[in-house]
Design brief:
Layout lengths: L1 H21 L25 H4 L7 H4 L9 E3 L2 H15 L21 E7 L2 E10 L3 H9 L6 E4 L20 E4 L6
Antiparallel strand pairs: 1-2, 2-3, 3-4, 4-5
């Protein structure tokens, strides 16, 4: 009985030590990294059919009637912060901070930010993305709903990144995605 009690206490002591060690402050061990933007990236996955402005828009691929496509959009946290700052300046309130309905609409469009878009194992680089709309945007933004309407412009940043000059998405220079208003 005493040996069983000693084994149990030993086991509890080991668990306690392991728990204490796992709670140590890891900030001293943290590695800080700084990333710099690579303006000399290669567009190795471009094809005429997918990225060129030499083709007509491919509605069948982009907007099929028999399935729902998946687009993966990646943006930096700095760009999300820029969107939030721009929206607060234009609409007068931050994301999810609207306390009353109504109000005027901004006199200018929202700013574009650069994002990466992936579709069908291909990537589109430095695609311009901006939030769009008036009533629907104001309502979803002010309510803190992430189903935001937005617009892509595929060569918005071609002056900054010449390797994406005349970038298209299966022939589309621009297109918009809008969720159902109040869905």
């Amino acid at each position: 009985m005493i040996s069983h009690l000693l084994k149990s206490l030993s086991f509890l002591a080991i668990l306690l030590i392991a728990s204490l060690l796992s709670c140590k402050d890891q900030s001293a061990d943290a590695i800080t990294t700084t990333t710099t933007e690579d303006k000399n990236f290669a567009v190795t996955d471009w094809t005429i059919a997918t990225h060129s402005n030499d083709v007509e828009p491919d509605y069948t691929t982009v907007f099929p009637q028999d399935k729902v496509n998946t687009l993966k959009i990646t943006m930096t946290s700095a760009n999300w912060s820029a969107i939030q700052t721009n929206m607060k300046a234009l609409f007068g309130y931050g994301f999810g901070e609207r306390t009353q309905s109504g109000g005027g609409f901004p006199s200018q469009e929202t700013d574009y930010v650069a994002v990466s878009l992936k579709f069908n194992d291909k990537e589109w680089y430095k695609v311009g993305l901006r939030l769009k709309g008036n009533s629907s945007l104001s309502s979803t933004w002010g309510s803190g709903i992430y189903k935001l309407p937005f617009r892509f412009n595929f060569d918005k940043f071609e002056d900054d990144y010449p390797q994406i000059k005349n970038q298209r998405f299966y022939g589309f220079k621009e297109f918009s995605l809008s969720p159902g208003y109040k869905d």
